[in-house]
């Protein structure tokens, strides 16, 4: 299994509450109703806590501000992801997902990448 991971920064015109509401109640149902089209096996949203501890962690290490959340999507393999996204249906869905993301994500301050878990 591999994961597509996206570290999200909210659109600059949105509050954190509005971002989380849109992501969880509009984008997630849209994604989940179409997940099989691209062969996605699992989808997890991790919402960053609004906590003084996060601010302390960043300050103590000189780190960048936290992302507003992390999306993780599991696929059987990189090849399965490529196949799902390369199909005509997958390409149409990818365009629709990206268009919807523009409603709540600042892509210029977000990041996406593939990972493989190594449990220790």
Q: Can you give a write-up of this model?
A:
- There is one protein chain.
- It is built from 4 helices and 4 strands; from the N terminus they run βαβαβααβ.
- With 120 residues, the chain is α+β, with helices and mostly antiparallel strands.
- The longest helix has 23 residues, at 16-38.
- The two termini are 16 Å apart.
SS element count, helices:
4
Mean pLDDT metric:
95
Shape: globular
Largest sheet: 4 strands, antiparallel
Poorly predicted sequence stretches spanning 5 or more consecutive residues: none
Distance between the termini: 16 Å
Fraction of helical residues: 40-55%
- Strand content bin: 15-25%
Structural class: alpha+beta
Question: How is the largest sheet built, in terms of strand order?
Answer: 2-3-1-4
The tally of beta strands, per DSSP, is: 4
Return Rg in Å: 15 Å
Order of helices and strands: EHEHEHHE
């Amino acid at each position: 299994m591999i994961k597509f991971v996206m570290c999200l920064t909210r659109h600059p015109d949105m509050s954190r509450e509005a971002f989380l509401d849109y992501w969880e109640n509009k984008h997630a149902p849209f994604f989940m109703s179409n997940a099989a089209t691209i062969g996605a096996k699992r989808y997890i949203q991790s919402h960053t806590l609004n906590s003084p501890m996060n601010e302390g962690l960043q300050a103590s290490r000189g780190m960048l501000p936290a992302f507003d959340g992390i999306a993780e999507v599991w696929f059987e393999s990189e090849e399965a992801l490529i196949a799902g996204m390369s199909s005509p249906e997958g390409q149409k869905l990818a365009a629709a997902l990206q268009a919807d993301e523009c409603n709540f994500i600042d892509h210029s301050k977000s990041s996406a990448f593939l990972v493989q878990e190594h449990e220790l």
